[in-house]
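Before a colleague's protein record goes any further, I have to sign it off. Thanks in advance; the entry in question is below:
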Amino acid sequence: MESIHFALALSLVPGIGPVRARQIMDHFPSGQAWLDETGPLTPDPLEWARHVQEAARILEKQEQSSIQSLLYTDPRYPQRLLHIPDAPCLLFVKGVAEFNTSHALGVVGTRDATAYGLQITEQWVASLAKYGCAIVSGLARGIDRAAHQSALRGSLPTWAVLAHGLHCAQPASNRHLAEDILAQGGAWVSEWPHGVAPQIGAYPRRNRLIAGMSDGLWVVEAAIKSGAGISAQFAHQYDRSVFALPGRISDVRSHGCLDLIRRQVAQLVTDTSQIAEDLGWSPLLQHEIREENEVPDDHQKIRRALMQGPLRVSAIEASAGLSSPRCLAALAEMIWLGTLRVQAGYYALA
């Protein structure tokens, strides 16, 4: 049994969470070794066989849906997540993402956002383009939606962290946005396997991933008891910088931010330069921005596709959304430029 299969089967065992699963995988090379060593402390063989069979079925479904499974030992796994105590052993990804980019900011807030909150979110995310940071959010209505949309307009990578399996994107009102994220080189991310529907208890777990995948977390608008406030608490526990936009004391959607500031969980910020300064970010040089923009669009699509590893031409065409003639022409150009290499029919970044 491969490690990914073992990890997924473990996640299906009742009572085994991410911390225990990580401990088991660190100590046992396979599911059988775990059963042999611990005996009655593990599921009985018939129960384990059912989990193993179900895990195999899920992995097959995910492969059919172009969903990747990243084990915590995979170098493509978000390294920031490895620094939180309850990081999932497996992360499921749809799309293409370089999670270990140098800058990443979580942006969260209320679903019932004000026009002011939406405007500030869009303006501030747009202004972050000069730092080249990835935007991490939860694809919810309101602030999350505005953050993802502004990132796409500014050609920033954006990752939608979901509280369910990646067979779909919720809520339904944001499905077009979710598809745009994939089309423009972003990704959907979840610790829940294919077929798992959204559940109330999954949202706090999702929020810890947003905090854990980011260098810092910006809370735009939030009530006192809110998902955004939970994300901020996680970020604070994980020793991430937390930033909050101040608002009117008469507006319930500002109470959460003001409370975070009052309790010194979050810093009051009135400009993106304060966020960048705290996180030690410097603006990209103009020639770096210009060179990135001058790369042909087809080359950028192929490069994003190959970030997941070497691929054959057919897989590149499917991932990049290119016709065969366009893909082959771009591959030839990239090999000539020295940005790609090819061996045994597989193309890879040079």
